[in-house]
Amino acid sequence: xxxxxxxxxxxxxxxxxxxxxxxxxxxxxxxxxxxxxxxxxxxxxxxxxxxxxxxxxxxxxxxxxxxxxxxxxxxxxxxxxxxxxxxxxxxxxxxxxxxxxxxxxxxxxxxxxxxxxxxxxxxxxxxxxxxxxxxxxxxxxxxxxxxxxxxxxxxxxxxxxxxxxxxxxxxxxxxxxxxxxxxxxxxxxxxxxxxxxxxxxxxxxxxxxxxxxxxxxxxxxxxxxxxxxxxxxxxxxxxxxxxxxxxxxxxxxxxxxxxxxxxxxxxxxxxxxxxxxxxxxxxxxxxxxxxxxxxxxxxxxxxxxxxxxxxxxxxxxxxxxxxxxxxx
Length: 328
Description:
The structure is a single chain. This protein is of the alpha/beta class. The chain contains twelve helices and twelve strands. It has helices at 3-13, 29-43, 60-69, 134-145, 151-164, 174-183, 189-194, 204-213, 232-243, 274-281, 301-307, 311-327; strands at residues 19-22, 49-53, 73-75, 87-91, 106-112, 125-128, 215-218, 221-226, 250-257, 260-267, 287-290, 294-300. Strand 11 (287-290) and strand 12 (294-300) form a beta hairpin.
């Protein structure tokens, strides 16, 4: 990344407006570590920014990360003074994707590592690079500008990179490796290792049990349905778990919640792009997208009602038909 490009963001945010850094809904460790790293980077240039999100932080390891590094992040429901002229920087997300809620402020910039599925030209600043973790892009901002990185920022970014690349076995790019090497001498590795302990809560076992009980495997595709409300991030973790089965190369896990169904898709096949698969499979009834190796999506309860009571079978049919079209 060139310093001129980064300086253009700094100059843009120095225009005197209040700045918010917005993650995707129900933020995960990569989103929060990226937002924290960007917030602390901007502080070096006298730009104060507030991190915000929509939804909830519903995973134990994410809450533990926030406590460990002292990250202050606010639910949009608790922000009562955002104005239309305030600046919003999207981090680890893009509008108008389903996992990015349109807030009151002005979305002025976007820093993300997901492919662009919907054309959008309204940002004044964009840095969208296909990497394993958005945290790698933020680390590059420090490296490219020779900006001093605190121990907590370095450790949080390292955790974000490790989590989103699944310890460098999923979607990893040279930038992820380069940035982890750069961070290595700044991070507290004892603190980082402690983050890997006690990451599963007792109540999670019920979701694992339901997922195991409801597995169906067709060819190399593993489907699993969790018939009750489950945190979004846990659905993603269980999708990784299903993918670890020796007969599964593509996992599709979905959970019912109060307003629809949340999906998580994983792929370890080079000829099956998880992001494109869910984007095409849910077209017309929902939304979805992501990386070649990992993706997510959502179908509202209203659309499920149109499908009828046997939507479980319909969902499997949609994904299998989409896969057949993609592979032939």
